Amino acid sequence: MRKLKFLCAALFVGVFAVALCGGGTGKAAAATDEYYLGGMTAGFSLSAGGAEIVGFSEIEDESGRHKPAEEAGLKIGDTICALNGIQIKKIGDLGAALEVCGGRSVVLLVKRSGETAEATVTPVKDKKSGKYKLGVLIRDTLSGIGTVTYIRKGDLRFGALGHAVCDDDKTNLEIAEKSVYLCSVIGVNKGKRGRAGELRGLFMNDKTIASAETVCDVGLYGTFSAGYDFSACECVEAASVKEATIGSAYIYSTIDGVTPQKYEIAIAKVDADQADHKNFVVKVTDKRLIEETGGIVQGMSGSPIVQNGKLIGAITHVFINDPTRGYGIAIENMLGN
Q1: Same structural domain, 146 and 43
Q2: Cα separation, 315 vs 219, whole angstroms
Q3: Catalytic residues
Q4: Strands 219-224 and 280-284, bridge-based pairing
């Protein structure tokens, strides 16, 4: 998820929804495991699960200008999964399948809002290029940034985000590129009541820090590079949500550059049995963080929560009506316990 890119982290924070997953860490955590605290922002790419329509364009042939896909009822946000039974995973697949059709009408399998349907479209032969086109602007990957929660000291397995990448129907995403890049935070859109803020980050493509392997409903998992410098990372043990208490705690987040900082929060509620992993309600009390970001913003998902010197969870969601408050997931739900 590549060339240098500026991007906002809107994909990788939740506002209210988070779902259940087995964790994807590869093995259950042992009682004696130690973890490097994360807090650094990382960038990665996920497959859109097909060719996602992000816009429409006109195609000109000898008879005039046409928008075949739009005229057939397709909408922005639809994902083209197959054409005449040929699976579409990336942009090139769609172009190749269209050439095979020779201008005949094609049947598209389209996913919209979690449902699938078929649409019949007649491609138009572009006057300039001579290629058959549907008149769609598409993408096959989703890129964004999120926060690394922990790196297990023994095998360098990491977990990040703490929730599903998208809060819509895109829950079955796959890794599009295994490389995970360090991101430099270059700005913050401050959170306000009624509007979530966000971090603005720059992929540092010369700084590959990990390899992504699994994405699921509680985050992104993989293995950190053995060459990563952990000398500045604090090493702690993990604690059960049953050890968490109402009161003072800390989060580690990066809101400028590449270096995580420690910020004060208060845990306002602990719910070990919350079905959708909203195990904590937290409130940001650190004046520095409130001044810079307004509280919790998009891109901070995965920020580790530490209480009494132990890793107990991660930030996942912000309250849209109060950016100083949000939800957290218990760390054992990320570790696969």
Answers
A1: yes
A2: 12
A3: 163, 286, 301
A4: unpaired
**Dihedral, 263, 325, 273, 170 alpha carbons, nearest 10:** -100
Q: CA-CA distance, 101 to 232, in Å (whole number)?
A: 57
pTM of the model: 0.76
Q: 279: phi > 0 → left, psi -120 to 50 → alpha, else beta; which? A: alpha
User: Domain limits at 62?
Assistant: 58-134
CATH code: domain of residue 249: 2.40.10.120
Do 70 and 38 lie in a common domain? no
- Tens of pLDDT, residue by residue over 41-76, are 999 877 777 898 999 999 999 889 999 999 999 999
Q: Which of 73, 100, 134 is a domain's end point?
A: 134
Residues 172 and 305 in one domain: yes
51: CB partners within 8 A, 6+ apart: 79, 80, 88, 90, 91, 93, 94, 136, 138, 139, 140
pLDDT digit string, tens, across residues 156-184:
999 999 988 765 544 456 676 788 999 99
